[in-house]
Amino acid sequence: MMFLLWALVAAYCVLFVNVLANHFYTRRIARRAKTASEDLPRISVVIPARNEATNLLRLLPSLQAQNYPRLEVLVYDDASEDETWEVIQRYATNNLRGIRGNGPAKGWLGKPHALFQASKQATGEVLIFLDADAYLLHPNTLSLLVRQFAALPEKAYLSGLPLLTGGGLILVSLVPFLVTSLLPMNLMRLARFKSLSMMNGQFWMIRRRLYEALQPHEFAKNRILEDVEIGRYLKGNRVIPHLADIKNLISVRMYEDFKEAWLGFRKNFYLVVGGGNPFLFGLLWLFLTGLLVATWWVSPWFLLAGLVLKTLVDKISGFPLWVSLCTPISFACLSALLLDSAFSHWTGRITWKGRHV
To answer: How far apart are CA 46 and CA 64, in angstroms?
Structure first.
């Protein structure tokens, strides 16, 4: 019993320290800036879109409102079945155009194929990959991001943690909680292990010549978690990851409601925790479930510590207080969601946006 008690104390202390260290690190990256306004490079913003008409009605006007002087926007319509193409055409200008696709080629999944095809037509010195459910919060968002990026080494990519909005926040809030509490972000620059990396596919940017040399989307062409795989692939090629706090610059409306959030995370969570080895996954699930039960059984103070930790991350991430108060529900959902995700992968029931993945 004493061993379990001290193990829980040590675990929570490490998690608290890591959350604070990650917060100060991502804020420091966000504050770094280089390059005068007259020296800003030409950039290409590349957006994959399948059935994203509603989201593009938010994103495209925010891109057109940018004060960035040398900007190109490429939106790849991945055989959408809604009014995505019509929305793209409505906002088309000299520097914003659509590319109409017929679906992924054999051996490819939709998103990496869309980004691979669109990037071949990009002319910018820097590529910015942005999900269609994103929204740029200020007219100078792109200028600030490019200045942050310019302060990084040549062989580097910039990603970040945006403000997450929409429905299903009880589940969505688990994303920054797991990332910021478990991943030592500052060590990613120093450690050579390619597994110690992170990329958020909702937003990332890289120099085009480096992208063309390594072709990361072709490498991850059939990977559901293409951003995780690309992050590891780039790290293995000595491209250093940097993460910035961008919640004041970009928001992402991930899901409309709890059901859609559950289906979205069902697609990803099993792979996030190292899916492919049922034995290791089973051990992880038993550990997680056992930790929750032990925390409840040993002392209510540990429940309070978990609530405080989640509240801290929620505050940093911009979630409302009611999300933090639902922390026990979030943790219970996480355990159930991991099981559902595993069984869905094992039985081949994973679909997304009308496609089997």
So the answer is: 14
